[in-house]
Amino acid sequence: MAVRLHVADDQQRLERGWPHLRTLETATSKKSAAERAASVLTKVDPSSMVWTPEVARAFLRGHHLRPGNPSPADLAAMAAPEELDADEFLALLPKWAARARYQFVFEHVVLLAEALLGAEAVVEAVATWLASLPTGGWGPPLLAASFAGALTDPHMMAYYVGYPALRAGPRARERLAEVRDAAPTGTLGARLLDLVLGGADAVRRNGGLRELAACAFVTDDPALVASISSADRRFASLSPRFVWLGGPSVIDDFVARAETGLPPWYLARCVAELGVFAEPAVVRLVGVLAGKKKAESAALGWVREHAAFVDANLDQLEGLPAADAIRAAVAGAPIPEPARTLTRDELDSGTDALLVETARRWSAVQGRTARIGVLREAQAAYADLMASAGFPPNPRAGHVFCVDGGRRVAALPTILGLDLEATMELLELWDAAEDAS
Predict the structure, then answer these.
(1) Residue 192 scores a pLDDT above 60
(2) Which residues lie across from 277 on neighbouring strands?
(3) Nearest to residue 251, comparing CAs of 217, 274, 219?
(4) Which residue, of 218, 249, 276, is where some domain finishes?
(5) In 3-state terms, the chain is what percent helix, strand and coil (to 5)?
(6) Choice between 47 and 236, residue whose per-residue pLDDT is larger
(7) Residue 228, domain member (yes or no)
(8) What is the pLDDT of residues 62-83, one digit of tens each?
(9) Among 121, 290, 285, 126, residue whose Cα is nearest residue 193
(10) 106 located within any domain
């Protein structure tokens, strides 16, 4: 069953890969373009950036950056005023491919280049780079075990180029097929190109993958996408693309995920991205999100904009804490302002207070299950704190709590006076709490 839309023009956007594209805007900032680009290069999800042409060029020239504060020389290397052309982008690709990075970085590389150069030019550059790789340069067969295992591998650029290929002419897919057919069989790069070009059959023949992120180009089997969606809860699958490909039942999966907890950085985005669909389940999804502080304003704003649709589907709100607020928004009640973004000092102070409170709660309970519960709540509170400051989840949260500490407060082992054996137990329980989340 085809998914319904509020705006007919959104059909073409979804067919062409939205929201997997980058739009260049005009914006001013006290920081230089290189500083702004550098600020996102080590984030898990740098989706909040306003991309200008200058920031996009600086990002693409920032392949050398590593975690930590960039030096003046690092920033200078990114700040070249010259336009970036296809030849320079092609020369940059091996540099981006030199090491693993956060999964979203490689998507940014491909899509920012598309925004600057056009879809055809980017497809050709990526195809030329792949075709130039030696036999041993196509990567290991990671997909045999898990698509998630490939997400930080540079060969993911062979997968993300599938989005510009949707927006380019027919020759783009032909070019990628030529490269795939000449690639060493079974290698990661070849398998990723196959997933771009081969539809549902490619998902099945590449290890029978059961990860939604591997299905971004499965345009020929909604049932397969819906089946995989029902069991996949990985962050990489958070995209309306899969609703478009898998049908309305995928929205139900998003509702279930929202009820158990979406990552804070996706809450407001979820309203904007899933809100394009005119399916009753979206009303329940927005209702769940309206109960989350970081998404409340966006959710109620969507309700106001789609009041007639929501009014016709009020049964979807049954049992939700935010049901009354949504009914009030339909009736025209004022919508709360978005939560204020915390300053860096407020984030640091909040982290210090959370460390102290977590240590107090840890000391007040006994037993593995109770202490895992304390750590799970600490992890959720820290993710909310980061989101309130405009940051994605910190991949080094375990280091903050168990090794580094905050700005003025030591890590948990020091606060609690743990010896080495007890510290190792804390680390093990931290991992168990993450796995249980």
Answers:
(1) yes
(2) 5
(3) 274
(4) 218
(5) 60, 0, 35
(6) 236
(7) no
(8) 999 887 778 899 999 999 889 9
(9) 126
(10) yes
Report d(CA 317, CA 319) in Å as an integer: 6
Tokens representing 344? 């860096």
Question: In this structure, is residue 233 part of a structural domain?
Answer: no
Phi-psi region of 244 (alpha: psi -120 to 50; beta: other; left: phi over 0): alpha
Mean pLDDT across 340-352: 85
* CB neighbours of residue 297 within 10 Å: 17
Distance CA 130, CA 77 (A): 26
Long-range contacts of 319-327 (CB under 8 A, 24+ apart): 320/284, 320/287, 320/288, 320/290, 320/291, 321/291, 322/287, 322/288, 322/290, 322/291, 322/296, 323/287, 325/290, 325/296, 325/300, 326/286, 326/287, 326/290, 326/299, 326/300
Checking phi first, is residue 207 left (phi over 0); if not, alpha (psi -120 to 50) or beta? left
Q: Which two tokens stand for residue 117?
A: 């150069």
Domains contained in the chain, number: 3
Q: Rounded CA gap, 383 and 394, in Å?
A: 7
Query: CA 231: distance to chain centroid?
Result: 18
Place of tokens 């080094």: 396
